[in-house]
Every structure is written in C-alpha cells, then in structure tokens.
Amino acid sequence: MNKIVKRKNCTEWTEALHAKFMEALQLLGEGRCYPKEILEVMNVPGLTRMQVASHLQKCRRNDWRSPEERKSLLRPLVQGSSSDFHESRSSFKKFGTMPHLQIKEPNLNCNPNNTQRNSNHSFPNLSTNNTFAREESPFQQQFYRPQLHVQSPYLSNFNPFSNQFLSIQNTISGGLQQQQQQRPLFGMLYSQGLQGPIIKNTNYRSDVMINNGHHHTQSDYTLNSIVAQGATYSGNGIVSSRNIRNEISNGYNLNASMDNVTSYSSNATMYGTYVGNVAINGLEEANPNFQQYIGEPNISNMNNPFQKLETPSASLHNEQDNDFDQVYYDD
DNA sequence: GAACCTATCT
DNA sequence: CAGATAGGTT
Q1: pLDDT digits over A228-256, tens only?
Q2: Nucleotides of C under 7 A from a protein CB
Q3: Most buried residue, A115, A134, A193, A257, by most Cβ within 10 Å?
Q4: Same domain as A107, residue A35
Q5: Strand B nucleotides where any atom sits below 7 Å of a protein CB
Q6: Chief localization class (predicted)?
Q7: Could you tell me the pLDDT band of residue A191, with boundaries at 50, 70 and 90?
C-alpha cells in the first residue's frame, strides 16, 4: 500500500499547516482572506475549501489552538467566567454577519486598514467631521475583509460587544472587561473625506489622540488625527508586524511613530496590543514627543495579557507634553 | 449557484 | 475538542 491513501478526511491543522495558512493570509493581504483564495495560495494537495473555511472560522473566533498549545493547555483555570462568555456570545450573534464592504484605495500601504462596521452609533463629540473609529484586533483583521470603505461621516460604534472579535476575546481572559470600558476608540478627522488612511485601532489599549488643529498646515491632505495601532502576531513563524513609521500613502503622510507593537505568543489567544502614535498630518516628520510607547511586557505567557496593558498610559511620555492634545478615554 | 458565514454536529 | 457538516445568506 502506498501512503497516498489518506488516513481520514479529517485534516489536522498542524503548526506547519497553520503556518502555511497564515502565510497565505499574509500574502493575500487583508482584503482577500476568503477560503477559496486562501486555499489556492496554500496549494496543499488534499485540502479542501471547506476545510480551510472551517479553520478560518476557528481562527477568527480564536478558537483554534495549535496542537502544541493544546498540550500545554491542559490546565483548567476556570474561574466561573463562563457567564461572560455567554454574554458576549449573544451579542456576537447579533453582529455576526459580515458587513458589506467595499474595497477602496487599494494603494494604501497600510495593510491593516480595514474597517468593518457593524453598527453605527453616533458619538457625540466627533460627529461633525468625518469621523471614523474602530476597534479590532489586528490579528483578527487578518482574517476578515479589510479595506473597507469608510464612508464619510461615519462612526462605528465603540461598544466592544458590537465587535464580535472583541467579544470573543474578552471571554478569553477575564480581565478584559475592564479594558472595554476604556473605550478603545479613536477618531479621525479627515479634512477632505479621504478614505485611505485609516489606521486601525487596536483593541485594548488604544489611546486616542485627537489633534485639533493648530499644528498643522493644511497641505493637500491633512488628516488631523492621531491614531494608534499596532500589533504583531507571530505564530508558527509568521510574523506580521505593522510597524508604521513614516509611512506615506497617497500623497499624505502618515507619520506614525511607533516602536514595535505587540507580540503575540504563539499560543495565546491574544494579541497584545500596542498603541503607538500615529500622527497623520501635514507635518513632515513625526514629532518625537509624540511618541508613545506602551511598554510591552513580554507577553509570553499571557493568561491575561490585557491586564498588563491596562495602566501604561500613565507612564506615557507624551502625557505631559502639550504639543498635542491627547484624549484618553479611560473610563 | 458558488462562496461565505455561523451554528451545530461528530 | 478539533474539524466536518448543515443550513442560511449574499
């Protein structure tokens, strides 16, 4: 007998296979993470689209554990947080369907510019301009369709529960709840209704900065807004990091200073998140003062990664500087 | 009707 | 529990 014969129909998603999967995602870019395409890119003989889809589902929901992880995950550690879980599940359902997105501005370099809108809540302060806010795990973004088209005055809501991903994640670690209250959101004000530069926000520790203005010269496109985001996911040898540094896209400058973002330990269900400062404005260079770095604990073992990211804002350099106004939504 | 997606089953 | 499948949606 040859080994050509398949053992079972049940493919096991090994680290390696998953790695391939992740690679495919990377390759495809945020806009096209669909089972079919992933499958094609992966180009693994026996693999079917449905299998990929299934795996994708798991990953999106953060349900998937690598075989290796499973082993080490033999510890219970349940703290009666199941209720949380269910709660989020319900809302999850509500917003579960993917929005219809339009792909726009393909030339933006910033991959993680996705937007997904699940519901629109109006947000008092920012309603005037085109405001855009979002929250999502970069990691997750990888799995979803990105490149949304952010419609003008548009504000997605900040309720963490509106975001299925977040919900799920929240359930992952107990401490999350608090994070949610921090309103991880940010706003962007586009002078000209640009759709491009959406810097995605990150989940748990997003410090928002909204710059109101006087420091800018109105150049062709001025984006008065500071947003932060960053994340890194690394698993199975795949690291996708978004270090945004003076990225220039479509004529406008994206001055993002952020040092390394987050890290994700292959086992975790989490993505750390780091929030750097991205300043998008007419200025040519990133303002050093602007830099904000939220200390990144080595999140190697993170039962509750978020906890650690909770307070760092207190130590942000920027906090005392007046160069820019910062607004933190900490409660 | 294919591809997606979520939910549910095995 | 991981992965397959059902069944609804786009």
Answers
A1: 333 333 333 333 333 333 332 332 333 33
A2: 1-5, 9-10
A3: A134
A4: no
A5: 3-7
A6: nucleus
A7: very low
